[in-house]
Amino acid sequence: MAVAVASPGTPPTRRDFLFIATGAVGAVGIGSVVWPLISQMSPDASTLALASTEVDISKIEPGAIVTIKWRGNPVFIRHRTPKEIKEAQDTPLSDLIDPATDQSRVQKPEWLIVLGVCTHLGCVPLGHEGPYDGWLCPCHGSQYDVSGRVRHGPAPKNLLVPEPIVFLTDTKVKIG
Amino acid sequence: MRLELVTRNGKTIMSPLRIFGAPALLAAGFLAVAAPARAQEAAPAPLPPKQSWSFAGPFGRYDQAQLQRGYQVYREVCSNCHSMHFVSFRNLSQAGGPSFSEGQVKALAETFKVQDGPNDAGDMFERPGRPSDPFPSPFPNEQAARAANGGALPPDMSVLAKARDIEFGGLWFMLQPFSQYSEQGVDYIHAVLNGYHDNPPDGFKLPDGKYYNDYYPGHAISMPKPLSDGQVTYTDGSPQTVEQYSHDIAAFLMWAAEPKLVERKRMGLTVVIFLAVFIGLLYAIKKRIWAGIHDDTGVTTAAQPGE
Amino acid sequence: MSGSTTFVPKNPVLKWFESRLPIIGLVHSSFVAFPNPRNLNYFWTFGGILAFMLVAQIVTGVVLAMHYTPESTLAFASVEHIMRDVNFGWLLRYMHANGASMFFIAVYIHIARGLYYGSYKAPREILWILGVIIFLLMMATAFMGYVLPWGQMSFWGAKVITSLFSAIPLVGDAITVWLWGGYSVGNATLNRFFALHYLLPFMIAGLVVLHIWALHVPGSNNPLGVEVKSKKDTLPFHPYFTVKDGLAVVCFMLFFSYFVFYVPNYLGHADNYIEANPLVTPAHIVPEWYFLPYYAMLRAVPNKLGGVCALFGSILLLAFLPWLDTSRIRSANFRPVYRVFLWVWFAAVAGLGYCGSQEPVGGIVTASQILTFWYFFHLLVVLPLLGFFETPLKLPATITDAVLSTTRGSSGAMVAARTTASPSVDG
Q1: Whether residue C394 lies in the annotated active site
Q2: Taking the CB of the first residue and of the last residue of chain A, which one, N or C, has fewer CB atoms within 10 A?
Q3: Could you tell me if residue C325 is inside a domain?
Q4: How far apart are CA B128 and CA B114, in angstroms?
Q5: pTM of this prediction?
Q6: In this structure, are A61 and A121 located in the same domain?
Q7: Which chain A residues have a beta carbon less than 8 Å from that of B303?
Q8: Residue C68 vs residue B28, higher pLDDT
């Protein structure tokens, strides 16, 4: 018989094994062809190589916010005044939507470094705006405090802190 | 007229007649017509001698120490005139290549000054190189390069090893893919670096500002002899000769042109084995399905599926 | 013969769907139940191989387009970026570049098979003409694709080929400038070639659908050239031809892989790794290997317009084959004289290819002229006359008769008995 179909109950034969083995090998083959087609869309080697940025922070006055570009996104570097630091540290965690202490978000209290991307839908929040004098997102009105923590929705999370941040010297910081 | 495949040292390796049979006879008859063309050409340049390379063949891979020496030759000699702008410092630490450590690459990049900017004041400025920077070019633009080199442009070296070919002639082109010979570029580069003569042969008129080279097309090359014995100091005890330098720099250029060569050949082996197994299985299935139903050798009374 | 079946899915959802869009039935009648002559040989698998290659080229091409920049100062660098930095970029580019050559290897075998077995003859003329149009589109696509890396051969190949149009009397120069979008090949040319290189493969895919449609009306020709007379002469497409085509496709993939992984630059040209320079022409411009025979014909004719006419005429003439060939016998197996002439013609095409790769001096020019003459003489004179003068061999009445009579001295019944008695013999 040319194409015999094994009837139910009969033990698997050599031909069943042959079909299963070929199917399995074919599936592996298709998988290994598809993988490069998917993987090619991931960031390439030149993009990954640019993943860190060094910034000279010596010229940033207290109270000022400087925006730099890192991995295609804005990063806010805020030189906080003692008043702002105290305000951020004294905020009770119970007032926060996404509770986090200020200490957990900074390495040096006077330098706050956060990703300038609203955690709602990705707009860039405006500095020194809103009732908490932190940031206000112009798109949908999310409010952040001087520690970049969200205080009023719709954003669900605090502004992200890029990692790693390394203070190479007192005036030079490396992000990423 | 050329009916046999002759290697560069004059040894006959194989007669195409034996391989292609009748079609080769046709081709041979045809070449007999075409042959006068060859005879009319000027005395041809000698073919570059074939070298042995660690990256040749199906299992080829780069020799890490050789690439590091090659980089040294590039850095100390070639890079004075030749750019290599598609290669970045970070590539030097890539697996399968010279495999410098990341620390070494960072230190190495910092020895170069790289132009960056504009800064907040709108000025361009120089800073130490970073691993992500491409190799800085010796000249700001093509015109500057030409002006500094007597009107000749030193070619960019990024893909130089793939941009040079050797014309073997005859019917070798039909066998070449199956020999896997793809080192024409490096053989040529090695030959040129060793092909300089202080004085051209009698009767050859060398234009001013040119140098005589056996292997350069037309023999008059604008690049003065770039390497001499002892010019680059190796730290690993390798011989400090032009022969060794030219091998090392050619290998480095091959890596620069084809940094994924090792990955490619390694993946190729897997793919070929995989497909061979798959073909075996499919062949068995095909035999089984067609069993009894002969296409051109006869028809059996075997029932068709579904009957 | 059209293979229409009354396919009714059992699953109620599919049944609901099928009654509104009978696509499962279409696929079933075209690629499952479709009756194919049982005596097809492996040359008939090249249609499937070509379908595979078209898909492979479109998939790798779309993916490469995600990284490629069609701008004259960035194109070469973006290709190097693909080769060095993009994940698996080197693999995708080598697959696409070598895939073009593989596509042409397969299409030339496919065309040669059609010529040998007379697949262009009635009632398959439209099928054949669609094939010639697909071939022309393939050539255009391949040519424009070769321009995209913007190397020296890209640039100068584009310049030489587009300059062919300047041979057209009166409007030639205007057309050339229009094609370039400037006074030379430049950024505008590169950009439009990229757009068209992306578009044409989908037009090819559309024509392939028509090609298969036109094939499924009369059904496949076969090595005997005798039409299918009864159901006994055929086998259903699935599983017989799916497995046979599948085996052939995977064998072809092995051949393809060898080039991609071990000699990826053999089919290309070293000069294309030098960035395009409008001021310097390479010493020896050659097109890709698959265009060499036409290139030789172009150079064989000393007159500019004549050369261009020879080039285009050599391909367009193929569309008229169904009427140039006056013989009623399809397969060259039954045409002893035609068979010899056809092999000579194949050799002439190969010879033209060799001439195209050489510098046009001395004997090469003479040889190209002789071979070009023979190319046209065969099509325009030999073919029409042979039909009248040739005495064909006796054709078998049916495919089944033929396969029975070639059963190496034993009768069909005996073969049947042997096979039934020992079913394990065949695997």
Answers
A1: no
A2: N
A3: no
A4: 6
A5: 0.88
A6: yes
A7: 1-2
A8: C68
What count of other Cβ atoms lies within 10 Å of the Cβ of residue A153?
Answer: 12
- Would A88 be classed as within a structural domain? yes
- The pLDDT value given to residue B294: 60
Q: Report how far residue C134's alpha carbon sits from residue C128's, in angstroms, rounded to the nearest whole number.
A: 10
Q: Is residue A156 part of a domain?
A: yes
Q: Give the single-character DSSP code of C205.
A: H
Q: What is the pLDDT of residue A10?
A: 59
CA dihedral C256, C259, C262, C263 (to 10 degrees): 180
Report ipTM for this prediction: 0.89
C28 and C65, same domain (yes or no): no
First to last CA, chain B: 64
* Cβ proximity of C148 and C154 under 8 Å: yes
Residue A36 pLDDT > 90 = yes
Chain C touched by B68 (CB under 8 Å): no
pLDDT for C410: 40
Of B37, B177, B260, the CB nearest to C362: B37
Flag whether residue C421 sits within 8 Å of chain B, measured between CB atoms.
no
Q: Which residue of C has its CA nearest to A42?
A: C87
Residues C6 and C132 grouped into a single domain = no
Owning domain of residue A131: 48-175
- What is the C-alpha separation between C331 and C115, in angstroms, rounded? 9
What are the mean pLDDT values of chain B's consecutive 10-residue runs (307 residues total)? 38 37 44 42 72 95 95 95 95 92 93 86 88 92 92 94 89 89 95 93 89 92 94 95 96 97 96 97 94 58 39
Angle, helix A14-39 to helix C89-116, in steps of 10 degrees: 120
Cis peptide bond prior to C239, omega within 30° of 0: yes
The answer to whether residue A118 is domain-embedded is yes
So what's the pLDDT on residue B167?
84
Residues C96 and C58 in one domain: yes
Amino acid at the residue A119: T
Give the model's pLDDT for residue A72: 86
Q: Find out whether A105 and A158 touch, Cβ atoms under 8 Å.
A: yes
> What amino acid positions of A are annotated as catalytic residues?
140
- Of A98-102, B81-85, C271-275, least confident by mean pLDDT is A98-102
Would you tell me how many other CB atoms lie within 10 Å of the CB of residue A122? 10
Which pair of structure tokens corresponds to residue C352?
């033209």
User: What's the token pair of residue B222?
Assistant: 């604008």
CB contact at 8 A, C221 and C118: yes
Does A6 reside within a domain? Answer: no
pLDDT score recorded for residue C402: 82
Asked if B303 and A45 come within 8 Å (Cβ–Cβ), the reply is: no
Average pLDDT of the residues in A24-29 = 94
Question: Residue B181 corresponds to which tokens in the numbers above?
Answer: 């010979």
Asked whether residue A55 falls in the same domain as residue A89, the answer is: yes
Structure tokens at C216: 């499924």
> Is pLDDT above 80 for C408?
no
Flag if B295 and C40 touch (Cβ within 8 Å).
yes
Q: Is C18 a catalytic residue?
A: no
Element (DSSP H or E) covering residue A70: strand A65-70
* Chain-chain contact of B279 with C250 (C-beta, under 8 angstroms): yes
- The answer, for B93 touching chain C at a CB cutoff of 8 Å, is no
- What does the DSSP 8-state code read for residue A113? E
pLDDT band at C412 (very low <50, low <70, confident <90, very high): very low
C28: containing domain: 1-33
Q: Where are the alpha helices (DSSP H) in C263-382?
A: 292-300, 304-319, 321-324, 336-357, 363-377
Q: Are B6 and B13 in contact (CB under 8 A)?
A: yes
pLDDT one-digit tens code per residue, C279-317: 999 988 899 999 999 999 999 999 999 999 999 999 999
